[in-house]
Recover the amino acids of this structure.
């Protein structure tokens, strides 16, 4: 077992919390929003990047000369690129063509290498390429779509923070869009273990586009990071009585702009999550306390539809 983490990583406060704040738009009910965009690389994926790498390092599965290789449409690659920069590790991000230029620049600025796979193969093409690269020696694959430590980072991290932060330590509902499912599954399990009788809810954009006719894999073109039926982590038996709240893309984008106008510099999935959480609050009614996350920052979306009205 390695005694000390490499690089400047070990000096960074691992217990820093993101704020949990009540947010209300217009006449709707207030819901509790975890400001995950305040993590160091700008998204909630810092949590899983650090957790997965630190655990692998401590267990001796990851060494200083290894190259970390991951498939991600952006946020996880940026978070891993930052964590690898801090730990002095090499990093390769494998991304489907078409990922926004800002994301590629961030990964490269942290010293990461970027490889692209054909756009029409979507994230599955990128995952297949990662598995091919991983067959070589000296590679470490975090495998965010299959690694149980993804949900674990949220179960023992995010969920515990929420319990400490929310009044009375009581959560009645938790809503989130799903990419890998790590956020929703980990939060739900952590909150349940803390004694909350919490209802889990999937925030689902209605306009999911099928990326591959043969595989049952869909993603949202307008709400990046959110997909459907993609991951080994997001399994129905882990989320009993799961509610599904469908949200129109236009509404998610409009809510995102309103959140930005209120001073939350967030990306499109925050609008999606927010509207789903409000709907869960309405269904549960009364004083139900519903939690959601604002996963990432608005700067990643300057060249997308989100910012068209301001161009
Ligand atoms: N990245 C972003 C930007 C997201 O909005 C979301 C969904 N909330 C995710 C990732 C998905 O998180 P997870 O992979 O934990 O399901």
């Amino acid at each position: 077992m390695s005694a000390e983490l490499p690089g400047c990583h070990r000096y960074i406060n691992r217990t820093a919390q993101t704020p949990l704040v009540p947010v209300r738009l217009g006449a709707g009910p207030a819901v509790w929003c975890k400001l995950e965009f305040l993590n160091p690389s700008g998204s909630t994926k810092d949590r899983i990047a650090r957790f997965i790498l630190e655990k692998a390092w401590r267990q001796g599965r990851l060494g200083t000369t290894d190259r970390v290789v991951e498939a991600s449409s952006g946020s996880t690659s940026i978070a891993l690129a930052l964590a690898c920069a801090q730990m002095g590790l090499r990093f390769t991000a494998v991304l489907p063509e078409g990922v926004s230029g800002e994301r590629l620049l961030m990964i490269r600025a942290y010293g990461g290498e970027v490889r692209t796979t054909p756009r029409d193969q979507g994230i599955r093409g990128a995952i297949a390429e990662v598995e091919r690269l991983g067959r070589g020696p000296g590679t470490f694959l975090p495998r965010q779509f299959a690694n149980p430590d993804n949900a674990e980072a949220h179960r023992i991290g995010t969920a515990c923070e929420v319990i400490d932060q929310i009044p009375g330590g009581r959560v009645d509902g938790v809503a989130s869009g799903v990419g890998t499912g790590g956020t929703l599954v980990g939060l739900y399990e952590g909150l349940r273990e803390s004694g909350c009788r919490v209802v889990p809810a999937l925030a689902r954009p209605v306009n999911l586009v099928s990326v591959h006719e043969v595989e049952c894999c869909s993603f949202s073109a307008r709400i990046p990071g959110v997909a459907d039926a993609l991951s080994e982590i997001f399994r129905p038996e882990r989320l009993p009585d799961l509610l599904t709240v469908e949200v129109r893309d236009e509404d998610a984008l409009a809510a995102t702009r309103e959140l930005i106008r209120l001073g939350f510099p967030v990306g499109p999935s925050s609008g999606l999550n927010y509207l789903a959480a409000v709907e869960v609050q309405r269904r549960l009614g009364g004083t139900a306390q519903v939690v959601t996350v604002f996963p990432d920052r608005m700067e990643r979306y300057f060249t997308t539809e989100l910012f068209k009205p301001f161009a």
In short: The first helix runs from residue 45 to 58.
